[in-house]
Amino acid sequence: MTAAAERGVDLVEVSPDAKPPVCRIMDYGKYKYQAAKRASEAKKKQVKVEIKEVKMRPKTDQHDFDFKVKNARRFIEEGNKVKLTIMFRGRENTHPERGVMMLEKVVEALKDVAQVEAQPMRAGRTMSMVLSPAKKQTS
C-alpha cells in the first residue's frame, strides 16, 4: 500500500480468490479510461444487420416488380436482410399461389446475391418470406 502511495498510483486487487490474493500497482483511472476506449472502438467496428421490407401485391406490374427487385438487391448488397411481403386484398385472397409465384420470381432474380432464410408464410392477408445475403464462396 505504501509503495503505491509513494508513486501516486492505486493498489488494485486483481484476483481476490487466489491464495494469497493478487494485487497490482497501477493508475486505476487510466486503466478504466483505456478500457472504455477499447469498448468504444469495438462498438464502432460491429455491423448491425437490419431487416428492410419490400411490399408488393399479386397484381404488381412488371416495371414496378423490377423496381422493387432492384431495391431489394441494393438492400442485400448493403448487407441487410430483406423481408418480402405480398399483400392480398379482396378476391386476391382466394389465389395465394399467385403470391407464391411472385415470391419465387423475386428469389430467382436475386439468387446470385441472396439466399432464402425463411420460406413463404401466410399470415392473414399477407404472405412473407425473408432473404439474407448469400455466403461468400472462398476459392
Explain the overall architecture.
By secondary structure, the chain is α+β, with helices and mostly antiparallel strands. The chain contains four helices and six strands; from the N terminus they run H-E-E-H-E-H-E-H-E-E. The protein has helices at 2-7, 28-45, 62-77, 96-109, and strands at residues 10-15, 22-26, 51-56, 81-87, 114-123, 126-133. It has a four-stranded mixed beta sheet with strand order 3-4-6-5. The chain has a two-stranded antiparallel ribbon with strand order 1-2. It starts with a helix and ends in a 6-residue tail after the last strand.
Order of helices and strands: HEEHEHEHEE
User: Could you give me the name of the CATH homologous superfamily of the largest domain?
Assistant: Translation initiation factor 3 (IF-3), C-terminal domain
Strand order of the largest sheet: 3-4-6-5
Strand % is: 25-35%
CATH class placement of the largest domain: Alpha Beta
A few lines on this structure:
The chain has 139 residues and is α+β, with helices and mostly antiparallel strands.
What are its keywords?
single chain, 139 residues, alpha+beta, Ubiquitin-like (UB roll), Translation Initiation Factor IF3, 2 domains, 4 helices, 6 strands, 39% helix
List the helices and strands and how they pair.
Layout: H1 2-7, E1 10-15, E2 22-26, H2 28-45, E3 51-56, H3 62-77, E4 81-87, H4 96-109, E5 114-123, E6 126-133
Parallel strand pairs: 3-4
Antiparallel strand pairs: 1-2, 4-6, 5-6
